[in-house]
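Translate sequence into structure tokens.
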Amino acid sequence: MKKEILINSSLVECRVALVEDGLLQEVLIESSHAETMVGNIYKGTVQRVVKGLQSAFVSISDSENAFLPGSDFRTRTAAAGSTEVLDEDIEQSADIEQRIRPGQELLFQVTKEPIGNKAARVTTKITLASRYLVMTPSSASIRVSVKIEDEIERQRLKDLVTACKGNTSSGFIARTSAVGVSPEDLQRDVGELTVRWQEIQMRFRSESTGTLLHRDLPAPLRVLRDIVSSDVTGITVDDDQTQSEVQDFIAAFLPSQLGNLTKVPPGQNLFDRYGLEEQLKAALKSKVSLKSGAYLVIEQTEAMTTIDVNTGSYLGTINLAETVLETNLEAATAIPRQLRMRNIGGIIVVDFIDMETDEDKQALLDCLSAGLLKDRAPTRHSNVSTLGLVEIARRRSGKSLQMLLSQPCSHCYGVGIVDSIDALAAAVFREVYRRRLEFKNLTCQVLAAQELVDRIYCDYQSEVLDLSSDHAVTMKLKVHENFSMGDFRLLQQTEVQ
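Result follows.
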């Protein structure tokens, strides 16, 4: 399998794509005008404690507050010296008002971007990531990524990290990239993370509230840190400055990948060259065609995402059960990639085609599980319900691709549909009738879009005549070039310019 990282940089944004055999798997987009907040660490002040929600709102800046659930709050008190330690005397299950108070200064980290009317979500359980480790200052435990299944390697990493941390009070998690690494590499990461945490604590004591204390790496370097492994066959950039930054990072942390770094000639759009622009456009559409002729329909809402599986033009085999199973398996293979590529988080409900046997249902779940294992975001799924539904929960962090690259339609107000032409014609006549006394013995000019004017002229002449004969209202229509389909305006003849 050919696995590549493509980094497209411009004056206004940076786009980083993970591509496998020409297919887009993941994409990270950062705008210079709207940098991601996830991973940022702030010093803030508790603005309000909400007992009913067992949560609090804390300030990120003078004009922006964030949501802190009680489950993501850990009480800290000043220890002898200057570092902070957990206060174990206060039970974490205690009432929120016993654990936190308005005006209290906190060190917290953003875990979810603000979405719509929802504020950013934050936690006081800080995590700091390096190439091989994640530091957890709020916990002293040593853990290993669940994706590392080899028990011998798990124990080796636990023993090495325990030895490397020494007297450090923080805990560490060995990442999947830590498999097979040397004690020296782990020791270096422990040292770097420890220094970084000490610097954050020092700034917390000296800086004013609302200060950004730590920002994660920029998008290209973050992807290199979190994604690149020995199976990556190419890293391609299209910008001189990005090439320099990436080369320095690779030399320091991924020297084996130096030979895979290339730059395309000036003037070339990297995403165009690899056909990713079209794949990005397709990722914004609700319908996803599958190779067999079957298709998915993906609908995103604020509360959840629904995915409907349809056989479409797929005729299958002579056996209905086999046709259904093959369609569902193809869908179960495609869905994890769509979730990653579109960065869809939260609750996803998939309506698979009904299956009769438990064996077929288990085969579907096995296929879905295998695809979700490739996802860096934590995911889990339910069994197949009696209605053929499977629920998937995928951790939401940043905005979905749809939220990043699109906005609600100004004509349909985001609902995805507009009034029919006949419904609009009826609305025009209702409005004229409602204002009939205002237009009596006068000309009522209707300004509207071309299609609506044509429809009324062609199909509603008798209604126009009825207005004249029954209510003494003369109705004339005029095309307004700047009006959309749903816009119209009524003017008295004396108002007409």
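Note: The chain has a mean pLDDT of 88.
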